[in-house]
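ERR on first pass: missing label on line 2. Operator R.T. fixed the label and resubmitted. Corrected input:
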Amino acid sequence: MNRSKSLFLCALCGFAALPAQSEMRPSLSFAGVTGLIDMPSGDQQSDGTLSFVKSQFGPIGRNTLTFQITPRLSGSFRYASVKDWYTKANPNDITTYYDRSFDLRFQVTREGRYVPAITVGLQDIIGTGIFAGEYIAATKTFGDRVKVTAGLGWGRYGTYGSIGAPFGDRPKVDFGLGGKPRSGQWFRGDVAPFAGVEWQLNKQWSLKAEYSSDDYVEEATKRSTFDRNSPFNFGVEYNLGNTVRLGLYSLYGSKIGFAAQFVLDPKKSPRGGSVGPGPLPVTTRAAAKSWDPNWVNDRGSQTAMRDQTQAILTRDGITIETIAISPSRVHLRIRNTTLDNAPQAIGRTARALAATMPASVQTFEIVPMAQGVPLSTVVIKRADLEALEFAPGQDVAMEQRTQFLPAAAALPPGSIRSDGLYPRFKWGIAPYASSSLFDPGKPVQIDLGLRLTATYDIAPGLILSTAITKKIVSGIEKGSFDSNTELRPVRSNADIYATEGDPAIQKLTLAWYAKPGPELYSRLTVGYLERMYGGVSAELLWQKTDKPYAIGAEINYVQQRDFNQLFGFQDYNVVTGHVSGYYSFAGGYHARLDMGRYLAGDYGATLALDREFANGIKVGAFATLTDVPFDTFGEGSFDKGLRVELPLSFLTGQATQKSGKLTIRPLLRDGGARLDVDGRLYETVRKYQKSDLDAAWGRFWR
Amino acid sequence: MTLRRRMPVLFAACLTLAGCATPIVQKTVGTVMGTNAATAPMVKPGKDAPQIWMTMVSLGIKFPMSQLQVRDGVTIYASKDGSQAFLRNGILIGTRGFGRDLMSAEAPSVATLRAGAPHQRSYYDMDGTDTMFRHRYACTVARDPADAGHVTEDCTADIGSIRNQFWFDSADSISKSRQWVSQGVGYVAVERKAK
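pass 2 clean. output:
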């Protein structure tokens, strides 16, 4: 029997057990938004969906990442290229034009029996505006196989077959350094109709045809990068499960195009959910292990209880730090380094205690720890565990009966510490990849190599750690352009750091984590904090266990490191630091505001908004405004970007805390740059506070 | 002008997203990322524990499960790789490790099924974001005129209709069944395994 493999294979063929879907899944366009071939449609993706589309026809290439931010609002980030844009004067000249653009779409109406789905879209709203266009698109499904779309477009979507300019001329906008919305242009100038149809032949195949209102004035007429002979486009798409769709097209009567669409819906894990082994069933007090009646006064018996509990927890990668057992309560401090879901770790710990604790122990106090610091106290009644294991709606019932309390730093009397945890040395070697994006000479550059990591836990909360990299494949080259920054190059020399650091000490730090109060956390880190800076970093976080907000402060004194990332420093130092506020809204929306001084000595604030799912998928955006004028900042005007975090456990269904993180900044410059120190407190602490535990509580019984 | 950023797992993520990851690739990914997935089953059933055959109908996979524990009238069966099924007198009320698991259920008793009484049923399952969903079904029971030991339970909810089937032995206990688990898993067939 090899059920896991077969299950995995089948997950790839789609969700076999889902009821037959009568509705057509909304597909994506060349521009990476929900749509036809080169034209958008009125549909939206399912709420929370993250998609990526790579498309190419003739000289035009696009890579688009789109997130369905709310059920009606979506945002897209696009990296587009047009070959032969520039004429070649010298053999080394770059002839391809690369540009980044950002879109927003809002669905005005959802499709009903008679009402079509109507979406209003703004394309390329803050970039150079070369791809700018606005549209209103309506889509209606006929039967369960045909979708018809009709729309009106402005900007680039109003360039072919215009029917007039109802809202006046489109003003010319000097985009300057980019990075600012050009709202004055929206829905101005010529408007042109577009239309198309999508016909789903069967589960796998669908056909598309459209009439495009984009004349490609710049690309075809002015720069002759391709011939636009016809407004009609045709295509065929093949659906590979629910996550991948491949398409082949005929575009504008002259070019063959292809597109690959990848769609990830956080609600649909590729494996359906977690497929790891089930838990130890709840043991009743009557069936629990019997101990010598004198166990209360016998440290030997208590140590044996701890060891038996640890033996069960080892299967889930949970480590006991300390245990204190009294006649009616047990206080257990644990470290969970494997299970991706915090309530699951607590549920499994509670069941282990039910199997090992003497019958008189009625209350389990489980204290999750990280970096030697207790995060919260989860109080579980043993009787509830026994009563609810098979109860319908057991998760809500259990949560209502569980208490979430602050955890004091001090250990309760009679605590027994686990052996061999301090001091302890751990190390590992793993391959790594680092990338550089958006260089106009070579947009994707990748280094591959090996990374040695080592940590030495000296005492609870006191950790010495390092990470050293050695390149094997050097793909990252020095940038095509110099940094040309008017500020101190606090970040813009990243390419020099990448090319000269081999081997590189990524970090070498001594960190001290502590808990000055029951809801107060602290961190002090000294050493080579990150690849570009070394120094001292101190942080304090106040977070109440049962509140959805937290406040923190961080102050750093750092000196810029040598490009070779060994032990030397450059002659630039700065005091940088922030006061931070965190708030977690209902529905998985999180906000964070940092105010303070940045690496170049500039003062300002960063606002970050994220949407998070209980399975750990996060998608967010951030922007920083500082007292650096846009002109001084340079291209892009201010620092901003998107970030995506994708836990490996979502993809594999297996228990692991590893995740893929990606931060995309259209431009990395020196204003609004922050220190990148490891072990910041909030993300670690919040996972075991009430509001995060609530969100993921369904897995307590998993 | 340029952006330097690490994205360690992105390639692995893309591979899996793209649906082109085979188990071999997945294993490599696991090794590369140093995944310490808990692959050992939690608890091993006794050697002579009673067994059932579990078939995941939509996948066509059949495997044995052994009795792990009986408590409060619920028997927990475990497969070799650690996944579990909870059966109360043969009626499925939970799964663990099947993917989109049935976390708990409000299910009819054997007596209700035997009496042919209409009843309500609730299934609690978790989607990919670990959000719990309760699906309430209204059910009717029909006895097979040709086979006195065969009962069909038809249930309807807003998300669709399901049909559970039960076969009773002469002692009026369920010897064989075909029961709904969740969207994502579909039906399982459960059969007592002869020793």
